[in-house]
């Protein structure tokens, strides 16, 4: 058995894959150092196994949420915007036609109807029934004449 | 920094980098490939499944947003680990996290984890020995300072190389080695302790 054992630091270096030929040679000869290194490596292996299992178990209970799940609404919104663009462009293109287009010519029949209605309105506003024609004269002569007229009407009654 | 200096980035668009950026574009595949790894790292660092899930989600979101900034001077796994490290650091610095950390007990958790450990094909006595050993190692790792624990997890759980850990943690390889030696010393001391 070799009395010049590997130090703790050297054993750690071995575990960290920083191995020298001297270390390797010593480990082939020394059971004690080999056991110490194996003990340390076993402890680390158990830790790794437990950590991986715990994490996998924990992750299995969680639904996978991809970033795409967040991006989907944005993508659909993009499609909606893309679909809206030609419609908006079409509306913009049609707008000047709608604004600048002259009013369609009114039909001759509608013009004659309008003229007739205007004439009727004029007649109605001017014309007075024959029974009330005398009253129009009274009113139109002024307030003094109207008073006389009213007196004459009372007397005649 | 040694590792960072070794990986000298020239700024040229290499085919490898293009391939990596293409991989980053496909966020679905990226999640499938690296989710369990990032989640495990976050879980072992934070000991909180909900926080670990949040960190994992944020990590992929950040990676996707910053995909054009990826220089290709390390693997995608290392780059994602670096993002996760920063997120975990932000998390552990928050007051809320500090409060819950002091309020919760880790001693029970180690026993819980040991109970769950499946050891098929070994005798009950051997299983008990494994369980005891695990509790000791688990507690020793838990007691490490945050940075040391992260380095320890990246090396002995994720099995990353020292230069990769240096990039992921933003530290020198020498510092990483020093953290690992301290972690291993603590583990060895715990394993030598008699119950």
Map the helices and strands.
The complex is a heterodimer of chains A (157) and B (195).
Chain A: H1 8-15, H2 21-29, H3 31-60, H4 67-100, H5 108-126, H6 133-140, H7 143-156
Helix pairs in contact in A: 1-3
Chain B: H1 2-6, H2 15-25, H3 27-46, H4 49-65, H5 76-93, H6 95-103, H7 107-116, H8 124-142, H9 146-156, H10 162-169, H11 173-192
Q: What's this, in brief?
A:
The complex is a heterodimer of chains A (157) and B (195). With 157 residues, chain A is mainly α. Chain A is built from seven helices and no strands.
Which chain pair shows the most residues in contact? A-B, 34 and 41 residues
Whole-angstrom Rg of chain A: 56 Å
Radius of gyration of chain B: 19 Å
Shape type of chain A: rod-shaped
Tell me what the CATH architecture of chain B is: Up-down Bundle
Task: Identify the overall geometry of chain B.
Answer: globular
Mean pLDDT of chain B: 82
Helix percent band of chain B: over 70%
**CATH fold title of chain B:** Butyryl-CoA Dehydrogenase, subunit A, domain 3
List segments of chain A where confidence is low: pLDDT < 50 over at least 5 consecutive residues. Answer: 140-157
DSSP strand tally of chain B: 0
> Structural class, from secondary structure content of chain A?
mainly alpha
Attribute tags:
A: 157 residues, mainly alpha, disordered C terminus, B: 195 residues, Butyryl-CoA Dehydrogenase, subunit A, domain 3, 11 helices, globular, disordered N terminus
């Amino acid at each position: 058995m070799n009395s010049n054992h590997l130090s703790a630091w050297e054993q750690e270096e071995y575990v960290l894959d920083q191995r020298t030929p001297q270390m390797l040679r010593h480990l082939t000869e020394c059971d004690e150092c080999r056991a110490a290194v194996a003990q340390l490596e076993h402890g680390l292996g158990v830790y790794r196994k437990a950590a991986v299992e715990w994490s996998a178990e924990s992750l299995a209970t969680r639904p996978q949420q991809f970033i795409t799940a967040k991006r989907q609404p944005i993508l659909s919104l993009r499609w909606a915007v893309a679909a809206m663009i030609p419609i908006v462009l079409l509306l913009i293109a049609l707008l000047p036609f709608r604004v600048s287009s002259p009013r369609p010519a009114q039909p001759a029949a509608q013009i004659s109807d309008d003229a007739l209605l205007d004439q009727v309105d004029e007649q109605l506003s001017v014309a007075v029934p024959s029974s009330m024609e005398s009253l129009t004269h009274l009113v139109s002569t002024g307030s003094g004449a109207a008073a006389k007229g009213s007196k004459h009407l009372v007397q005649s009654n | 920094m040694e590792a960072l200096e070794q990986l000298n980035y020239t700024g040229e668009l290499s085919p490898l980098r293009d391939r990596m950026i293409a991989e980053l574009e496909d966020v679905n595949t990226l999640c499938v490939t690296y989710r369990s790894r990032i989640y495990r790292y976050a879980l072992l660092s934070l000991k909180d499944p909900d926080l670990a899930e949040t960190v994992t989600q944020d990590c992929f979101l950040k990676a996707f947003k910053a995909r054009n900034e990826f220089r290709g001077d390390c693997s995608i796994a290392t780059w994602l680990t670096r993002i996760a490290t920063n997120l975990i650091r932000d998390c552990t610095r928050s007051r809320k996290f500090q409060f819950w950390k002091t309020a919760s007990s880790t001693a029970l958790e180690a026993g819980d984890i040991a109970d769950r450990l499946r050891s098929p094909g070994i005798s009950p006595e051997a299983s008990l020995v494994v369980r005891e050993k695990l509790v000791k190692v688990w507690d020793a790792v838990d007691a490490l300072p945050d940075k040391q624990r992260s380095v320890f997890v990246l090396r002995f759980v994720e099995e990353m190389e020292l230069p990769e850990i240096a990039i992921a943690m933003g530290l020198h390889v020498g510092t990483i080695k020093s953290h690992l030696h301290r972690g291993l010393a603590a583990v060895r001391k715990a394993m030598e302790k008699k119950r």
